[in-house]
Structure formats: C-alpha cells, structure tokens
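Incident log, structure service

09:12 report received: a user says their structure output differs between two submissions of the same chain.
09:20 pulled the input from the user's history:
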Amino acid sequence: MAAPHSFRRAFSGKRVLITGGLGFIGSNLARALVALDARVTIIDSMIPEYGGNPRNLAGIASQVKVHRTDVREHAELARLVRRQDFLFNLAGQTSHMDSMTDPETDLEINCRAQLALLEACRLHNPGVRIVFASTRQIYGRPDYVPVDERHPVRPVDVNGINKAAGEGFHLLYSRVHGIRATALRLTNTIGPRMRVKDARQTFVGVWIRRLIEGEAFEVWGGEQRRDFTYVDDAVEAFLLAAAREEAVGEIFNLGGPPPVTLNELAELLVEINGGGSFVVRDFPGERKKIDIGDYYADDRLIRKKLGWKPRTDLRAALEQTVTFYQRELRHYV
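09:34 re-ran on a clean worker, output below:
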C-alpha cells in the first residue's frame, strides 16, 4: 500500500461514508480506514442477494457506525451525506444474470439511486469527495486487449448499461456541479470477504467454496483470458483516488497481474488448495449471450497519474483468499 503516513494525513479524523460498506470491497475499505483513524459510517441494505455480511466487520464493528438503509430510500440520503468529508460509493446490484431477469431492480439500484445520491450531495454537501465503484463490464466485448479507458463503452447486459449511466452521472456532476468525483473501473476483484454463496459477485468465490467443500467446480469455456485485482490493491486505489486532487473528474481502469485463462486459474486454485477437481463445460445458453470473452485492463493511466500499481501477484492473492475461507467458510455460506 502507498505510504501509510500520506493516507493518515488525508483520512485521520475525517468523516467517511461508505455505501455498500458491509459488502466485499466496502468492508475491506472500512477496515483500512479504521486503521487510519477515520470516522467511518456505513450504509448497507443487508438484502441477502447483494453481499452484505456482518461478519465482514469482525474486529472493527465497534469502531464504525452502520445504518441499515437501502440507497433506494431517497429520503434518508440527505441526512446521511451531510457533513461527510469522503463518500466511497460501492452500493450496487452486481449480478449480470439478475439484471437480465429483473432489469427494473437493477435500474433502481445502479441508476436511479445513484442520481438521487448525487442530488443529495449537491443539495446538502457539495464539498464531499466521491469515489465511485464502476466496472469493466461497461466495455462489453472488447475490440482489443488490453482495454484502455478510450475503448468504446458498449455493454452486453442491463447491468452494464445501468452501471455506465451511474458512472456518467458522477462525472457529469463533477463537471457541471463541482462535485469532486472519480470513477474506478474495476476488473475481477478477489480476496477475503468476497461472496462465495453464489456467482452473483464473482465466479471465483463459487470455485473456492466448492473446492473447500470437496466438490468439483465448473469452468465454462475455459480459454477466456482475464485479469484479477487483489482486494487490498483495489482498496489502495480507492484511497489514492480520494486523496489526490488530480484524480477529480477522471476515470481509471484497475488491472492486475498478467492475465491467465480460466483453465489456468482453475489449475492454480486446485494446486493451492492441495487438491480438488474441476470440469470444463460449454457455456449455458443464457450466459453465453452476455459473456465478454477475453478481457484484461490497460491500467497505465492510474499508474501514471496516481502512482498505483497492483502489488499482489495472482498466486499470493489466491493463497490468502483460500486460507481465509478454509477458516471462515461457515460464516459465508
């Protein structure tokens, strides 16, 4: 992580609001901010399908304030954003398949609620500094790899369209209303506290769960190349984006170590677990329609502007994640 003293200057004693803060990345971010002596408040709906888990705050629960609030409850937002110095906006519906079967809910959470949150900031706290969790999914099927920020935004599912709109609202409010916002386009983020109950957040979580439970997991396709960001590295990117003024109004891709095929990832996981098995299958028809094929990020812009780079190689990231769930799995299934 970047020099702790620089982050401590930026965040110590500051009021920080994290939407989706009981989820995977949000809770890891909360833990880092508590360690920096920030005054952390979390909003989370705790809807079972969306990843919030009280266990994610184990060890720091007494040091944060938690509001069980849905970002769709627009009347609550004004009260919660007042007097905050930083807003890390990670609340969202992440399942691509759910967005296709229930597009209205995805629209409400990933689009309308984002606009309402920004309006609450404009009216009640225009000085707040915002970092928005966007996604590589908005690019759709890449025309080329690695994908840089200039690549066309061409989503293949409802989730990608609504996330692109949410990102666009943040950048518009930054340009027009002076709300200092930054968007981070995340790739496949992995690590402790990610959802393993199902594939709504990441397929890697399901693979790890089945490995630990002694069951074979399924690899669909297998030759797609992907990159993966370890959660601690993603947290550092959020902190850097919030702390550095040159990030205001910018979009940054996050990347990871060199990309691997899904087959290579599966083999590495089995090796790290000390055993296990997987089967390679054709994509289910409904999934194939929205698969993006190969994707890995060109993250040179954030490296150049903010000095960020992924520090955790894939093996170390998987080893730390598997070790966590070997110990904690009962709290996540």
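09:41 both user submissions now match this output. Likely a transient worker issue. Closing.
09:42 reviewer note: The chain has a mean pLDDT of 94. The two ends are 30 Å apart (CA to CA).
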